[in-house]
Amino acid sequence: MGLKFIQEPEEDCLLGVWEIEEDLSVLREMVRLEEEEEQRLDSFRNEARRLEFLSVRVLLQRMIGPRARIVYDPSTNKPYLHDRSYNISISHSGKLTAILLSQKKKVGLDMEQMTHRISSIAHYFINPAERITDDETRKRYHLYIHWCAKEAMYKICDKNALNFREHMVLEPFDPAVEGTVVGHVDNGRIRDDFQLHYRRMKDYVLVWCCKKEIR
Question: In sequence order, which residues have a C-beta less than 8 Å from that of residue 45 and are 6 or more positions away?
Answer without folding.
Answer: none
